[in-house]
Amino acid sequence: MGKPHQSSDDAVALTPGESGRRVNDVDYVRRDEALAMLGIKKESLYTYVSRGLIKTLTEPGRRTSLYRKSDLEKLSTRVGAKGGGAPVAQSLRYGEPVVQTSICEISTAGPRYRGQPATTLAREGRSLEYVADLLWGGLPPARDRPWPVMEDESAEMRGKLVSMPQQADAFSPIRVLAMAALQLSALEAAGDARGHGDARVSGLRLINAFSGISGYFGPDHAYATVIADEFVAWRVLRGFGLAGRPDADQLLAAINAALVLSVDNELSAPTFCARISSSTGVDMYACVASALMAQAGPMQAGGMMDLEQYLAEVLCADRPMAYTGVPCFGHPLYDRDPRAELLLEMVRDLSGAAATRERLLEFVDAVHRRTGAYPNLFAALVILAHVLGLPAGAAVYLHCLGRTAGWVAHAAEQRLSGVMLRPRARYVGARPAGSF
């Protein structure tokens, strides 16, 4: 894995009069604002930069730097906490930790799943089943093996899942998944489900049901039924209609890596939703449904749909392209998202769709040269889906399928804590005269 990216002098273009630059929800500010945010002298600011606590970009045409605002907010949170303040807003936006977890840790090399680097697990070809059992059980499984077939306990439930393709055009992939989760929740509430309240059983049923939805994106436009002794990644490949290709093994490795790399990334907003829901006592299916709806927002996986359209225009060679403000490029927690680096490395090695692959990878390189921005995992998934020739929404689907394993782990961990998450708000509005 390469060293953290340092931008060149032509990395960022600023509009005159702006105090900073926003790049995919990552804000940068100039030195004066950075000093004001922290209440420190410039010498201390430079010390923070040299220690790697604040990332910078060079402002074009000037011998000055821009400072990443989220890093400044983290440091501001620490300063405020030491001074007895309560900087809640900063804590909840890439700030100090607000939840204790043993599931996932963010590192410069990407997320670690219970201490094991996600990129290593993906590179070694560990299955989604292996990683899910690692997160759900706390210990590495003895070996990779498919999960047992879990038949739908209700004919009505199975019928609703199978009939969903007729509705798929009217709903986003995330909403289709959420509908399936809510159907499972209804079954649980009716007391018709085996393993009632068992987190692992719920996780198996969710991922089994969700993996069948892969068939919506394939040539059959039908629910992909479960086959015994079949890994989730192969079922997805089969649902996509790619299992018969001569390079199926290569495609399987890429899809499996996409699922494994998507499993968790610590306390994202949708994951926080899953934990909050779990802390109230609702069933696992409702927790995942709440996370899915948060994931649908444009600041989360919903932004992948924007990138799909953007890259479709990139593939039209006769159209001039803008290289700034590209959706899903850059990540607040990584200089270069290691998950995206690995997945794009696998995309480069794919044997099919050479023209599409080369065109998209050339675009990635051009954006990186001109702006310093590098694709995050969302972008890498969209590029993979384009190269595989999958329809719109397939990349979002892949991410949510993999992330479901992480949501189940977080919801189960939160429930075991026995604590209901109920953050307090710091009121800053008007008060009646004379009140305290």
From TrEMBL:
GO biological process entries: carbohydrate metabolic process; tricarboxylic acid cycle
Keyword terms of this UniProt record: Membrane, Transferase, Transmembrane, Transmembrane helix
InterPro entries: Citrate_synth-like_lrg_a-sub, Citrate_synth-like_sm_a-sub, Citrate_synthase, Citrate_synthase_sf
GO molecular function: citrate synthase activity
Pathway: Carbohydrate metabolism; tricarboxylic acid cycle; isocitrate from oxaloacetate: step 1/2
Listed EC numbers: 2.3.3.16
Transmembrane segments: 377-398
EC top class, as a word: transferase
GO cellular component, one term: cytosol
Pfam families to which the protein is assigned, alphabetical: Citrate_synt
Protein family membership: Belongs to the citrate synthase family.
Record's protein name: citrate synthase (unknown stereospecificity)
Organism: Achromobacter spanius
Organism lineage: Bacteria, Pseudomonadati, Pseudomonadota, Betaproteobacteria, Burkholderiales
